[in-house]
Amino acid sequence: MSKSYLRYFLNKLAWLLVTAVFAFILNFTLPRLMPGDPVAAITARIAQGMSNTTGMKEVYERYAEQFGTNKPIHEQFLIYMKNILQGNFGTSFSQYPRPVADIIRASIVWTIALQFPAIIVGWIIGNALGAMAAYLKKGFDKVLMPISIFVSNFPAFGMAIILMVIFAVNLKWFPTSGGYGYNLIPNFSWEFIWSVIVHYQLPFWSIVLIIIGGQAIGMRSMSIYELNADYVKYARFLGIKDRVIVRYVFRNAMLPQITGLALSIGTMVSGALVAEIVFSYPGLGYTMLNGVMGQDYPLISAVTLIITIMTLIANFLIEILYGIIDPRIKAAQAEEQGG
Amino acid sequence: MIHTLRQVFRSGKFVTGFVIFVSLLLIVLIYPLLVPDDPLAIIGLGTFFPPGIYVNVYDSVNVSPYTLNLPDATTKRIADKLGPKERQDMKEFLLAAGIPEEEIDIEDTAKLLDLWEKNYDPNKNIEGMTLAKMRYYQRLNNSLKGLLATEGLIVALPNAQTGQLEQVKVIEQSDYANINEVPNVRVLPLGTDNFGRDVLTELVKAAGVSLQIGFVAGLIATLIGLVLGLLAGYLGGMVDDIIMFFTNLLIVIPSFVLLILISFSIGQDKRGAITIATVIGFTSWVWTARAVRAQVLSLRNRDHVNLSRLSGHSTVYIILNDILPYIMSYVVMALILQISSGILAEAGLSILGLGPRTTEVPTLGLMMNWAMIYQAHVLGKWWAYLPVLVTIALITFSMNLMNTGLDQVFNPALRE
Predict the structure, then answer these.
(1) Contacts of B377 in chain A (CB under 8 A)
(2) Per the CB 3.0–4.6 Å rule, which of A71, A260, B213, B252 could disulfide with A75?
(3) B324–A contact, CB cutoff 8 A
(4) Residues of chain A contacting B256 with CB distance shorter than 8 Å
C-alpha cells in the first residue's frame, strides 16, 4: 500500500468514525428532543389498562432507571454509549423478556443476505443497460428510458406488491411471505435451503428492479456526456476503433457511478427495508415494523442505529474500493513511487 | 423568460409530464365539488365491496316493473349460479358419492340438478374433504334451490294486527326495473375499502393531501438546501466548512431512518399531515444543498459577479441578482424532485405505520397501509391498493418526466 493510498484510507476511516459518532448522537438525542417525558409516554403505553398507581410508578421508575433519564444528560450519554459498545440494547417491550440484541442478531443475517446481493446485482445490471442505451441509442434507448424513469419512480413497496400479486398470489410460483416455509425449523437440510431460495426470489427481484431503473438513468447521462467529450472526438479523428473508445468512455462514466453508489446506498437500503416489510421477510425492516406495531421503543432505536451503522460501513467500503480504482489516486501513487 | 418557457413547452417529455400532472391536479380540485361526500365516511357495512353500480334492492322491488321477454334470461340466471366450476365440483362430489362417471353429464343442467338433489347429503363425510369444502357444498346446495323454478317471487308484509304474512306483490322472472326510476343508486367505481369507505372519493382526497405533503416537504427542503448551498458556496471559508461537514454527515446517514426515528419519537397523537411533511422537509435538504453549492462555486468568480462586487453591492444583493437567476432552473428541477420524493417518503412512512394519525385525513400512504394490514393484495381486492399505487406512480412519474424535460432544455449535452 502506497503512502498516498494510506492517507486516503486513514482519511476515510476517520470520516467513518466521525459519522458513526454523529449517528450515535442523533440516535441518542432525537427521541429526547421531543416534547414530553419519553419514559412517561412509554409507561403509559405499557401500563394501558393498569389501574394500580403504585404499579405504574414502579414501572416508571424501572424504565427511568434503565434509560437513566433521572440522571444529567452527559451521564445519560455515557451510559448509552457504554451499553451500545457492549452490545446491550436493553429489553424488548413487545417480545418481553427477549433482549433487543438477540432479536437483531436473528434478523440482521437475513437483511444482509438479501440487500447486499440485490443492490450489487441491481447496480451492475442498471449500469450495463444505461451504457447500452447511451451507446446504441435509437430503439433500445427509446424503450429503455421511459421504462427506467417509470420504474425508478415507482415506490419500492409498489414494485414488491405487484410482483407479489402476479407471481405469488395469482401464478402461485413463489410464496407470499416469510423467509422460509412456516412449517420448517432452520436447519441444514435440502428442504430448508430450497425453501429459503424460493422465498428469496421475490424480495430480491423487487429490490433489483427498483435499483436498475435509477442506475440506468444515471449511467446513460454519464455515458452520453463522456461520448460527447473532446477526447472521444479526438480518438475518433485518430481512427481508433469504436470498441476501444467505448471501453475508455465507460470506464470514465463508471467512476461517478461508484461515488453515486456510495452516496445513494442509504436510499437503496430504505427501499429494500420496505420491500422486506411487504414480503414479511424476517430481516431488520420487518423487525422494525413489528417494533412500530408493538410501540417497542428500544427495538426501533436499536434497529435504526444498526441500519445507520451498516450503511456507514457499506459507504466506507465502497469508498475504499473507489480509491483503488480511481486513476487520479493511482496517478498520485505512481508519482510518489517515481519520485 | 418567455423564451425559456416556450423552449420548455417544446420539450415532449416536459409537456407529457405537465399534462398528466395538471390533469391529476384538476381532478383533485374538481371532484370534491361534484361529489361533496365526506371522504372518510363509512358507508359500507363490511369490507372490500367490489367496484360497480349498487342498486337499492328495496327500492327496485317497489318500482313498477316492465316486462321484457329476453330469450337468454334463464340461461344467464342459471349460469350465474351454476358455472363450469360449480358443475365440476358437483361432479366431484357425485363421483365420491358413488355415482358412475358415465351417468354424470355436467352439460345437461336439468339432469345434473336432478342427480344432485337425489344424492346430495350435507352430512355425508367424504374422506379427505376439508371442513371448508363441506361448507362450500352446503352453500352451493342452498344457492341451487329453486334454480329451475319458473314462478315469480312473492313479496309479503306482516299484517299490523295479526302478524300474519300477507302477499303484497309477485315479482315475475321477466320483470325489469329501469335503473333511472330507482331512487337510490350508488356508483362505486372503485368499490369500498376495508372500513367500507368509498375508495374513489377517499383516493381523490388522499391524492390532494399527499400532494400538499409533497409541496410542503419539497418547499421546506428546497428552501433550506438553497439557503445553505448559497451561503456555503458564496461565502466559502469557515461557513462552507461547517455547512459541508453537516451536509456530508447527513448524506451518508439514511434520511429514511432519521425520518422513522423522528416520527416515532413525535408519537401517534401529534403526527398531523403537515407535521409529517415538515419532518420530511427537514430530513431531505442535503442533496439540494450540495448541488446548489457546486453551482454557486462555479458562478462566484464569473466576471459579472466580480463586477458587481467591485461596484460595492452587498452580499445579499449579489446573491439575489447575480447568482440566484443563474441557478433558478436548477432549483426548480430540484424542487420538483423533492416534491415527488416527499410523496414517496410519506408513503414509505405510512406503510410502516408511522404516517399521519389516521383519524382526520387519508393520504396515499395511509390507504396503502390500510390495504396492506387488511391483506387486500393477498385476497385479490385489487381496487383497494392498485388505484393508490397507480396514483402514486402517476404523480412521481409525471414530475420526473417534467424534470427530465427541463434537464434536456437546460443541459444541452443530454438532448437527443
Answers:
(1) 161, 164-165, 169
(2) A71
(3) no
(4) 266-267, 269-270, 273
| Contact between A244 and A232 (Cβ < 8 Å) | no
- Predicted pLDDT of residue A339: 37
Positions in chain B whose pLDDT score sits under 50 = none
Question: How far apart (Å, rounded) are the C-alpha atoms in residues B391 and B364?
Answer: 8
Task: Please give the Cα distance from B98 to B119 (Å, whole number).
Answer: 9
Q: Could you report the per-residue pLDDT of A266-285, keeping only the tens digit for each?
A: 778 888 888 888 888 888 88
CB contact (8 A) between residue B385 and residue A161: yes
Smallest Cβ–Cβ distance between A157 and the set B253, B368, B404 belongs to: B368
pLDDT, tens digit (0-9, with 9 covering 90-100), for B283-312? 889 889 988 998 888 888 888 888 888 888
Output the CATH code of domain B2-44+194-414: 1.10.3720.10
Q: Do B254 and A269 touch (CB under 8 A)?
A: yes
CA angle A70, A71, A74 (to 5 degrees): 140
Q: Is A278 on the interface with B (CB under 8 A)?
A: yes
Nearest to A19 among B249, B255, B344 (CB): B249
Is the pLDDT score of A84 beyond 70? yes
Give exposure, B166-190, as e/b (b: 16+ Cβ within 10 Å): eeebeeeeebebeeeebeeeeebeb
Cβ neighbours of residue A168 under 8 Å, at least 6 residues apart? Answer: A174, A175, A176, A202
Q: Which amino acid is at B153?
A: L
Residue of A104, A212, A106 whose CA lies nearest to A156 = A212
User: What residue spans define the domains of chain B?
Assistant: 2-44+194-414, 52-67+156-188, 83-144
Give the mutation candidate from A293, A304, A315, A322 for the B interface (greatest B CB count, under 10 A): A304
| Lowest mean pLDDT, pick from A14-23, A222-231, B375-384 | A222-231
